[in-house]
Amino acid sequence: MRAPSTTGPRRGRPPRGAAQLSRTVIVEAAIKIIEKDDASGLTMRAVARHIGVDAKSLYNHVADKDALLDAVSEHVLGDLVLPAPSGNPRADLLAFASAFRVQSLNHPRSTALALSRHVATIESLAPAETVLRILRRAGFETPEAIHALRSMVAVLVGLVLREVSAKRTVLDDAGQRVARREELRKAGYAELASSCDTLFHFDNDEEFDFTVHLVVESLLRRRACASHAQTRDSANRPVD
C-alpha cells in the first residue's frame, strides 16, 4: 500500500498571468479594452479575461470598477510629460498642448474618458495645475482661468478624437478634385467650389497647430484687452 502523502493536496498550475498580476497590469489591460471597445466594454470580468486570471483576484489590487477608472485616469493624465515652464504664457500653453496631444494619441479613448469623469485622484490633477499656473501668471483671475482651462481641454480632446476616429473626405487625385469642384459649382456652392483644392486636403499637424494657436492667441488677447480696460478705468476714476 502506498504511504499517504505528507505534502498536502496537490494544487493545479496557477492561472495564466496570476504570478504577474499587479495594479499596473490591471490598469494597462483596462486601457487596452477601452481603446478597443470603448468604456462600454470595460468590466472587471473583461479585464480578468484579458489578463487570464480569475476576476476575484483583481479585487486584491483595485476595490471596484470605479476605482479602476480612477486608476486609468491617473495613468493617462498623471503620466503626461509636462514641459518645463519658460515664463512665456504663449509658448508654455502651446508646449502643453503639444505634450497633451502626444500623450492622448497613445490612449485617445482613455484620455477622453478620464477627462469626462469627476477626477478623484490627486495624481491626475497635474495637467490642470500646470495650465492654471500658466494662466494665473499671465494675469487671469481665477474664474476666467477656470473657463480658459475648460475651453482648452474641450478643444484639445476634440482635436485628438477627430484625429484618431473621424472620417475625412480627402481627394488626393487632381482629377477627382476637378470633378468635385464642378459638382459643387453646379450645385450653387461657389465658395466651396473655389476652395476645393484646400477643402479636400487635410493634414493633422496643420489642423492641430492652427486651432491651438487660434485658441491660445484668443485667450491671451482677451486677457490683454481686459487688463487694458481695467488700467484705463482706473486712470479715469476721479480722485476723492
Give the key terms.
240 residues; Arc Repressor Mutant, subunit A; 11 helices; 0% strand; flat; disordered N terminus
Query: How far apart are the first and last residues' alpha carbons, in Å?
Result: 113 Å
**What about the largest sheet?**
none
Number of helices: 11
* Helix share bin: 55-70%
**Average pLDDT level:** 84
Category by helix and strand content: mainly alpha
Overall outline: flat
Order of helices and strands: HHHHHHHHHHH
Number of strands: 0
The radius of gyration computed from the alpha-carbon positions, rounded to a whole number of angstroms, is 26 Å
The proportion of strand residues reads: under 5%
Low-confidence stretches: 1-15
Task: Describe what this molecule looks like in 3D.
By secondary structure, the protein is mainly α. Among the domains are: 18-62, Arc Repressor Mutant, subunit A (Orthogonal Bundle); 89-166 and 203-233. Helix content is 65%, strand content 0%. The chain is built from eleven helices and no strands. The protein has helices spanning 23-37, 44-51, 65-78, 89-106, 108-116, 126-137, 142-165, 174-186, 190-194, 196-199, 204-236. Helix 1 (23-37) crosses helix 3, helix 3 (65-78) packs across helix 5 (108-116) and helix 7 packs antiparallel against helix 11 (204-236). The N and C termini lie far apart (113 Å). 24% of the residues are buried. Mean pLDDT is 84; it is low at 1-15.
